[in-house]
Amino acid sequence: MFRLVQESVQNAIKHAKTAEIIVNVEQASDVIHIHVRDYGIGFEPSAIGEESFGIVGMRERIELVNGSITIDSEVGKGTVVRMSIPIP
Ligand SMILES: Nc1ncnc2c1ncn2[C@@H]1O[C@H](COP(=O)(O)OP(=O)(O)OP(=O)(O)O)[C@@H](O)[C@H]1O
Ligand SMILES: [Mg+2]
């Protein structure tokens, strides 16, 4: 979870061109929800280059613990990374 938040926040710092990044962590009975949101420049997911491994790595990590991840981004509006991790 630390690595997932770290990469999401690092991406917002590195790419979003905004000073405001909101990290929200919520624990329900058997799942932890993490949202990392920024209101920066956003991006087009299909335009991700081949030298980018951060998001690929996040997907692999989430898969290992049977969690889920969605990344919603809109150019000019910002990005939100939503992750859910089950607690065994
Ligand atoms: N929060 C964000 N705001 C704007 N663009 C983003 C954001 N997160 C990711 N991106 C875009 O998606 C691309 C892929 O991100 P990814 O983390 O996979 O690679 P990277 O950050 O470029 O490199 P790496 O994580 O391997 O050091 C980025 O290069 C950037 O263009
Ligand atoms: Mg990255």
Describe this structure in words.
The protein has helices at residues 2-15, 54-64, and strands spanning 21-27, 31-38, 68-74, 78-86. The longest helix has 14 residues, at 2-15. A hairpin with a 3-residue loop joins strand 3 (68-74) and strand 4 (78-86). It has 88 residues and is of the alpha+beta class. The chain has a single domain (2-86), classed as Histidine kinase-like ATPase, C-terminal domain (Heat Shock Protein 90, 2-Layer Sandwich). The chain has a four-stranded antiparallel beta sheet, with helices on one face. It has two helices and four strands, in the order αββαββ. It is globular and about 35 Å long. Helix 1 (2-15) runs antiparallel to helix 2. The model has no long low-confidence stretch (mean pLDDT 95). It binds adenosine-5'-triphosphate and magnesium ion.
SSE run: HEEHEE
List low-pLDDT spans.
Answer: none
How many structurally independent domains? 1
Largest sheet: 4 strands, antiparallel
Sum up the overall morphology in one term. Answer: globular
List the helices and strands and how they pair.
Blueprint: H1 2-15, E1 21-27, E2 31-38, H2 54-64, E3 68-74, E4 78-86
Antiparallel strand pairs: 1-2, 2-4, 3-4
Helix pairs in contact: 1-2
This protein binds adenosine-5'-triphosphate and magnesium ion (MG).
In short, what is this structure?
The protein has 88 residues and is of the alpha+beta class. The chain contains two helices and four strands; from the N terminus they run αββαββ. The protein has one domain: Heat Shock Protein 90 (2-Layer Sandwich), CATH 3.30.565.10.
